[in-house]
Amino acid sequence: MHSDSNDLDFDPLVIHKCLSDQTRLLITLMIFTEVELSVGELCDALQESQPKISRALGVLRNCGIVSDRRRGQWAFYSISDKLPLWAIDILDASVVSMRSKLLAANQLLNQSANRPDKHN
Question: Cα–Cα distance between 31 and 45 in angstroms, integer?
């Protein structure tokens, strides 16, 4: 899934800059732990507006951290399969250090009315 062959395509400085914003970091970690999330789910989980979440996702997509797939009106975001292993290690460590914020966001996510059926 993730490989070292993509290391040259990713600049560590760019990755760190993309993750330096708290909203972008939390979005990335939520997606990393949940595998795939929609904008609505992220809005509910992080208690942020749709424009703010969409802008942050655009930055993360441009950095190569997330990718999206569309199904009807829904866009689902996941961690890019091109992300190198060293970047995955950063995400793993960040999940540990941000555990309390992620648990709170996960509780809100589980209460979200914006949980589409992704299996179709």
Answer: 11
